[in-house]
């Protein structure tokens, strides 16, 4: 494919960063293009900060003015000012000076975009996500050998190597009998988990490149991107990305839609869904998917977050400290009682406490649930965003931090999470099927004056150790960690009083 000029080479220029599903933002793009006679207006992908999107960025000669959620009239004024030879700085939310040919999003000194370290997110929102000129392909001449020495761990609950070395899964699949296949698991149903969606919207070619590099390494001729059937806009976006680089990638994945069910995002349940099983449930292990996966073939299953880290490690292996316990960065979506969620990127030497700078909390902070709907409850975010530190603190690693305000009742909140687990588990194993029901009943009993903390903890221990599915294994975590932090509130409920004053009905 012939290469042309990239977005970074063009000035003046207007970028409009927006989510792929945000059709309403098209009016901003249309208004600016209608106004512009000589200024190119490029729609880029999301930056990850929902409260800032659409984010209009006006660039001229190494300076960029940022406008979050502008009115169409403001957007037109931005174009007019650029065409007059000026940078529209007066009404901008921020103005950043940068190299005239920078290929990464310039970062303002303050605001959500300034939080963390944008590495795999570096180009998201700054360049056209569907333009091959913006995304140099590495998989065509380099497989993933360079990654095997970095110690990279899998990211996210949908990753079969979650919090474990990805190279181990690759070697198993490489040595197993049969033709390997590589799967990108992006079937997510929960609104608070947006990291993979941001990557697939803002950097789809980078993810496809990472998939191809892993496929080359394990000797796979086939690859699959597994999406939620409800994400029609993302399907179309990925189809366009695949078409854009089909001639350059050594392996072109196919898109497969899975059911809009939480359980269908677990790695082996995803395999069942892709094979067309009527009942979506996790498989018993061993054997692992790397040995016996999709249609019995050796299968490597990672999330888009992992594949993005793979590509980054291939392009810049020096950015990964092989001696670190959890090399690379982790994407964190900050959600909960906030004005707008934001997806940020944190290095391993950072602290989760900085996530509060990325959002506007509604009310006063009371607690956080870290690790998704079945994550751990904590009062303190003074913990490193590494798999090891999060696990040691009893928290989850799925890349979600829900900030919850003081209007929240901790007993009601963890009760809702337990009830979610009782309805969403596959029912395949007794700890998952019956344990989640018992856990929910024990929490209902608190409202009846009975708090059996020892029974709750013992049930949680058994479920965590013996459940076949992640839902059963992780369901006790919100409850047991909340007991550690807020046992007096549980006891108050057993005495007929809700300290937060928000409980109006029983579970």
Automatic annotation (TrEMBL):
Pfam families assigned: Complex1_51K, NADH_4Fe-4S
Keyword GTP-binding: no
NADH-ubiquinone oxidoreductase 51kDa subunit iron-sulphur binding domain boundaries: 411-456
Molecular function GO labels: 4 iron, 4 sulfur cluster binding; metal ion binding
Keywords from the UniProt entry: 4Fe-4S, Iron, Iron-sulfur, Metal-binding
Claim: 4Fe-4S is one of the keywords in the record: yes
Name of the protein: Respiratory-chain NADH dehydrogenase domain 51 kDa subunit
Similarity remark: Belongs to the complex I 51 kDa subunit family.
Top-level division of the source organism's lineage: Archaea
């Amino acid at each position: 494919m012939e290469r042309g000029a990239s977005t970074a080479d063009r000035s003046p220029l207007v970028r409009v960063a927006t989510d792929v599903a945000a059709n309403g933002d098209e009016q901003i793009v249309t208004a600016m293009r209608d106004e512009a006679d000589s200024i190119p207006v490029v729609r880029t992908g999301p930056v990850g900060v929902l409260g800032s999107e659409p984010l209009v960025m006006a660039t001229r000669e190494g300076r960029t003015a940022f406008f979050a959620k502008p009115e169409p009239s403001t957007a037109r004024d931005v174009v007019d000012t650029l065409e007059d030879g000026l940078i529209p700085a007066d009404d901008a939310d921020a103005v950043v000076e940068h190299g005239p040919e920078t290929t990464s999003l310039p970062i303002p000194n303050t605001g959500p975009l300034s939080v963390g370290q944008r590495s795999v997110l570096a180009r998201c929102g700054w360049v056209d996500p569907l333009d091959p000129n913006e995304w140099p392909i590495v998989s065509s001449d380099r497989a993933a050998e360079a990654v095997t020495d970095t110690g990279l761990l899998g990211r996210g609950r949908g990753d079969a190597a979650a919090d474990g070395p990805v190279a181990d899964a690759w070697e198993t699949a490489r040595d197993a009998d049969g033709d390997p296949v590589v799967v990108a698991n992006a079937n997510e149903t929960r609104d608070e988990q947006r990291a993979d969606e941001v990557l697939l919207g803002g950097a789809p070619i980078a993810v496809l490149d990472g998939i191809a590099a892993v496929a080359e390494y394990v000797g796979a001729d086939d690859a699959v991107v597994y999406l939620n059937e409800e994400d029609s806009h993302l399907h179309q976006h990925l189809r366009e990305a695949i078409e854009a680089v089909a001639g350059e990638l050594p392996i072109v994945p196919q898109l497969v839609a899975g059911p809009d069910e939480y359980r269908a995002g677990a790695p082996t349940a995803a395999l069942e869904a892709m094979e067309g099983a009527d009942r979506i449930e996790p498989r018993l292990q061993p054997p692992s998917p790397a040995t016996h996966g999709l249609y019995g073939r050796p299968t490597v299953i990672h999330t888009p977050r992992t594949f993005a880290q793979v590509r980054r490690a291939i392009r810049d292996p020096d950015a990964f400290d092989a001696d670190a316990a959890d090399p690379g960065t982790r994407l964190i979506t900050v959600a909960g009682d906030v004005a707008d969620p934001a997806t940020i990127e944190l290095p391993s030497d950072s602290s989760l406490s900085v996530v509060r700078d990325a959002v506007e909390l509604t009310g006063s902070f009371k607690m956080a649930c870290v690790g998704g709907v079945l994550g751990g409850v904590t009062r303190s975010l003074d913990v490193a965003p590494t798999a090891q530190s999060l696990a040691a603190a009893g928290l989850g690693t799925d890349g979600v931090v829900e900030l919850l305000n003081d209007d929240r009742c901790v007993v009601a909140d963890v009760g809702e999470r337990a009830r979610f687990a009782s309805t969403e588990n596959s029912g395949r194993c007794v700890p998952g099927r019956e344990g989640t029901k018992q856990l929910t009943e024990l929490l209902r009993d608190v409202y009846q004056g009975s708090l059996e903390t020892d029974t709750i903890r013992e049930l949680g221990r058994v479920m965590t150790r013996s459940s076949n599915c992640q839902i059963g294994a992780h369901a006790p975590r919100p409850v047991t960690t909340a007991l550690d932090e807020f046992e007096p509130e549980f006891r108050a409920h057993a005495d007929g009083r809700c300290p937060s004053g928000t409980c109006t009905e029983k579970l």
